[in-house]
Design a protein that fits this description.
The complex is a heterodimer of chains A (505) and B (317). Chain A is of the alpha/beta class and 505 residues long. Chain A contains 17 helices and 24 strands. Chain A is 33% helix and 27% strand. In chain B, helix 2 packs across helix 11 (236-246). Chain B has 317 residues and is mainly α. Classes of the chains: A alpha/beta (505), B mainly alpha (317). Bound molecules: adenosine-5'-triphosphate and magnesium ion.
Chain lengths: 505, 317
């Protein structure tokens, strides 16, 4: 029996200026199905979903819900039609409580006054039913990312959604949180809800989805049920060629230690961090988000100064140097939050392409536009940033393309030490393959690389040495091959004690 | 004993000083409350000065035309609402920079009240005296020692301020509209994505803010002098804005901050009476403002999206 059709988007066309983001895209989703949207960065996945949610209007094409044609011209109408969306970037209000964030727009009131008890019961019921644990009275700014994601999902369900759109919900989650999320999605599915999920992780797609639709360059590449799909087939559909899903890592002769931290402490956030990175070596920091990674990164780059301890770069103590001085000496930094720390969203692409390095493009105190244009164009070309031109605003870049620009900027400016946080977060498989290759080529060129990532596969595939960070301390360090994935997971959760494993020096 | 103490000079002077503090604080408090509404909705309100001046003028005009001072108050609020609507159109619809538009509103307020002053009364300095709004002695309560004189012999505008402060607090922290407004000032895109009409809220909040600021202005003209004088607000709009910041965009906080600035004003007046050099003494409220903002401003938190333009299809999410 053919399942009922919950949603059909028919020949959707959408242009932004001269850029055709969607070109005659069809999407059909059956009721009670988990449907995955796949596609390279900038393929148009988010745009298609924003049209469904009423944030953008399509130029052409129709939307049918339960076989009835509808016009959705605002999120309000989408919600009325039973559609909810969890966005790629959190849409929460940091200084309101979890509770207030959830009920916003659908508040229970008694004679105009907020009825706290009623809302609370409703929310508590929802979160209990699905096993989504949230602390209702915490401020959103004080809760970890995983919990924020749960708040977003409860928010969607609180509105009584029948169709739930999740735009890259797993990008910021740990493996454990991902499997919890998938459990919730499957429960929802059994309840008859329809789910559309966007992700770049092929394994996840196969684990959770019933059916996959692939977009490439704004065009529909067809749909496939997951029982017939493999990661290779999906990658092939997305990119249009074969993709190496595993990294091939050559051997590189280690050079001398060029970057080192000695007994780094930062209040109670970092505890006695000792790291040594050789030239031609990648040291991976594995850890659940919020265990001191942010503080470590900010201390290394000079955004905050350690309470005690020192940072040595090429035998020189740089603990007191400013960020600018560190960049000048050849420290390259890819921050964890590209929107917050990495790029200025309403700057043009070329401005972002030289941000932090603008001094190198000075000629008699003025910016040298010829050089800037050349550099920006090279970055766009070499790092495959999909964009109209270097005068486009960075806010118009899709998530993955913004990341490529950021990586391109740092690699292009010839660093000797690289501090890289989550380099492939939100990046498509083709680009991951490419970025991993670039990181490895930096290693062959003898750069010292510190890699912080929540993606265990990435850490394991790239790192020569792995250190696990837990509650601000490095609990164990060893060669890349020393750990199995399960062991790493346990160390990250603080489960295994370091003494239980012999550490090679 | 007690009798003696109550009648002592020190007590008399202190009560007088505090009573004038409350009088000085009344217009600041009303305007600062107005600022809370507009800024919680994300619109910087640098135009308080102009709005107050408008309120001061139309209050007198209304009273002059009808002979009823309360109808003057009504006209003042109406005029403030209309001026604020204009400001809202410029900043929200045409996306002008809030600060620039606010300064323009202040210049506009000064300009057109002066022009109208000449047009209506043929005088470029001040209006004739009209029926004003006078202090009300609350029966029994006003006979209480100290508090009676301090609190219960005040202008109706003062009572209005206290009532509006409480209502505003309830509005912001106990109703859904207040919750939404607070959310809009922080992250309009998130609020919009929940289907809440962000711009409707912004317009209404700016208009409400304008009406409140105009009431503050009407107090200055109707409540204190019973006439309008050119540029009579003389900087109070800016101090009200400072009170709004110091009070952390919270209705109760901003009224308390207004009391502080009112006290500085009252001290200034008293010192002038005692023959201190006027230029020096007049600096006091402003110096206090600077010190307070410099020393405390770090502990307060402005709405995150304050001053930003919101556009649904151009937000990164
Ligand atoms: N508001 C906008 N203005 C101009 N161009 C835009 C806008 N939003 C998206 N685009 C462009 O449309 C294309 C599709 O973007 P979209 O965000 O839908 O990609 P995506 O498939 O979600 O990619 P990612 O996986 O990187 O998030 C991109 O080239 C992007 O630069
Ligand atoms: Mg996207």
């Amino acid at each position: 029996m053919e399942a009922l059709e919950a949603l059909r988007m028919n020949k959707i066309v959408k242009s932004f200026g001269s850029l055709k983001a969607l070109d005659q895209v069809d999407l059909t989703v059956a009721k009670g199905e988990i449907h995955c949207l796949l596609g390279e960065n900038g393929a148009g996945k988010t745009t298609l979903m924003k049209i469904l949610y009423g944030i953008h209007q399509q130029d052409e094409g129709e939307i049918y819900l339960n076989a009835k044609k509808v016009k959705i011209s605002s999120p309000k109408e989408a919600i009325t039609q039973g559609i909810s969306m969890v966005f790629q970037h959190f849409m929460l209000i940091p200084n309101l409580s979890v509770m207030e964030n959830i009920i916003l727009g659908q508040e229970e009131t008694k004679m105009g006054i907020l009825a706290d008890k009623e809302s609370r019961n409703k929310v508590a019921n929802l979160s209990e039913k699905l096993g989504l644990k949230v602390r209702l009275d915490m401020l959103v700014e004080d809760i970890p990312v995983g919990e924020k994601q749960r708040v977003e999902i409860i928010k969607a369900l609180y509105r009584g959604a029948e169709i739930i759109i999740l735009d890259e919900p797993t990008a910021v989650l740990t493996p454990q949180e991902v499997s919890e999320l998938f459990k919730v999605l499957k429960t929802l599915k059994e309840d008859g809800k329809t789910i559309i999920i966007i992700t770049h992780k092929l394994k996840e797609t196969l684990a959770v989805a019933d059916k996959v639709t692939v977009l490439r360059n704004g065009k529909n590449q067809g749909s496939i049920t997951t029982d017939k799909a493999t990661p290779e087939i999906l990658a092939q559909m997305m990119v249009g060629r074969n993709v190496m899903l595993e990294v091939v890592k050559g051997k590189v002769e280690k050079g001398p230690v060029i970057f080192e931290t000695k007994g780094l402490n930062l209040k109670d956030k970092l505890k006695n961090i000792n790291l040594k990175i050789h030239a031609g070596e990648i040291v991976g920091i594995a850890g659940v988000e919020g265990n001191g990674q942010t503080e470590l990164l900010e201390t290394l780059i000079g955004l905050c100064s350690p309470t005690s301890g020192s940072i040595i770069f090429d035998q020189k103590d740089i603990t007191k140097d400013s960020v600018e001085e560190r960049l000048d000496q050849g420290l390259g930094f890819i921050p964890e939050d590209r929107n917050d720390r990495g790029l200025v969203n309403n700057f043009k692409l070329w401005q972002n392409a030289i941000l932090g390095y603008q001094k190198r493009y000075e000629k008699k105190g003025l910016l040298d536009f010829a050089a800037i244009t050349k550099a920006s164009e090279t970055i766009v070309k070499n790092y495959q940033v999909k964009v109209l031109g270097i005068d486009s605003k960075s806010s118009s870049l899709s998530g993955g393309n913004a990341q490529k620009l950021l990586v391109g900027r740092v690699f292009y400016h010839n660093p000797r030490v690289l501090i890289i946080a989550h380099p492939t977060r939100g990046v498509d498989v083709g680009a991951i393959e490419y970025l991993h290759k670039e990181i490895l080529s930096m290693r062959s060129q003898g750069k010292a690389i510190l890699l912080v990532s929540a993606d265990l596969d990435e850490i394991r595939q790239l790192s020569d040495r792995i250190a696990v960070i837990y509650e601000g301390a490095i609990t164990i360090e060893g060669d890349g091959g020393d750990f199995t994935e399960d062991e790493l997971g346990l160390y990250m959760a603080g489960g295994l004690r370091p003494e239980s494993k012999v550490v090679k020096a | 004993m007690l009798e003696q103490w109550l009648n002592s000079d020190a007590v008399f002077l202190t009560v007088a000083l505090l009573a004038s503090t409350l009088r000085m604080a009344t217009p600041l408090g009303l305007a600062a409350l107005g600022a809370v509404y507009s800024e919680r909705a994300g619109v910087i309100n640098l135009g308080l000065e102009g709005l107050m001046l408008g309120g001061a003028f139309f209050g007198i005009l209304g009273s002059y035309l009808t002979g009823n001072a309360w109808l003057g108050v009504l006209l003042a609020a109406l005029a403030g609402g209309i001026m604020a609507l204009l400001f809202a159109l410029v900043t929200l619809r045409y996306k002008a920079n809030h600060v620039v538009a606010g300064v323009a509103l202040n210049l506009l307020g000064l300009g057109f009240t002066t022009v109208l002053l000449v047009a209506v009364w043929g005088n470029r300095g001040k209006s004739p005296d009209v029926a004003g709004i006078y202090p009300i002695y609350i029966p029994y309560l006003s006979d209480l020692p100290i508090v009676g004189e301090l609190i219960f012999r005040q202008s109706p505008f003062f009572y209005l301020l206290i009532i509006l402060m409480i209502l505003s607090w309830l509005f912001f922290y106990r109703t859904k509209w207040g919750l939404r407004l607070r959310a809009i000032g922080e992250n309009p895109a998130a609020v919009d994505s929940l289907g809440i009409p962000v711009f409707t809220y912004k317009y209404l909040a700016v208009i409400a803010g304008g009406m409140l600021a105009a009431l503050g202005g009407a107090y200055l003209s109707l409540g204190e002098l019973s006439m309008f004088a050119r540029n009579m607000v003389s900087g109070r709009g800016y101090i009200a804005l400072a009170a709004n910041i110091l009070g952390n965009w919270n209705p109760i906080g901003v009224v308390l901050a207004s009391f502080l600035f009112g006290l500085a004003n009252a001290i200034e007046m008293n010192l002038q009476l005692y023959g201190w050099p006027t230029q020096f003494v007049q600096m006091i409220p402003y110096v206090v403002t600077m010190f307070v903002l410099g020393g405390f401003v770090r502990k307060v938190q402005a709405p995150k999206a304050l001053g930003q333009h919101f556009d649904r299809s151009n937000t990164n999410m």
